[in-house]
Amino acid sequence: MTTFTANCRFSLHNAGRNPVEKRAKYLGRGTRVSASASDSVPNPELDLSSDFSRFMNANIGIKNPAKGAKPSALHPPTFVITSQLEALMHNDYPEEDCGVMTAYRFAMPGDVEDLIVGGSQTHVCDWSSKDQWLTKERFIEMVKEYPYNTLVGLANWELISPLKFVAEHDCEQDIRIQSIVNGESRASTFTFYVSKVSVGPYKDCWMTTGVRARS
Question: pTM to 2 decimals?
């Protein structure tokens, strides 16, 4: 159980906020009973906020807010990654496949430069290949196929590397998950790739361009 000292002051308004990633230092983790990411603006000053939201969820039943997360220029790269992990962990709450739909919203649109404000994306990046684009229906199918199916309903996760910038607008981060397969716990490692959009309605948003399973 997480313990909080008397001089730590939190409100329900701030409980869901997640700190901005610290490139060489941040290691985050989540569990099935946790809720560590939200669609609110991350607060870089509160390193304890994700632990506190997990504590509140476990003890007084605050629900995981990651389901409503969507791209925003205010969200840093690690927030984009952890929001998807939290949503996939609770995939069918409050409705079936809403966790997968959170991942879909964060996937890079194929026509991102031509989108108009208020328009909807018709194709998004295939996690396994940056040169292929999928419809919403095919994206949902992909996430439920090996190796990504281990992400759906995962038991817990952790970031196992600092955020690595491979270019000004491109970065990657390694994560490890624990999933339950046929009653047995299984560990898997993935690398998430995210890029910043430079034009259009998603300008300055970080979005997923790939997820690779690591051996």
Answer: 0.71
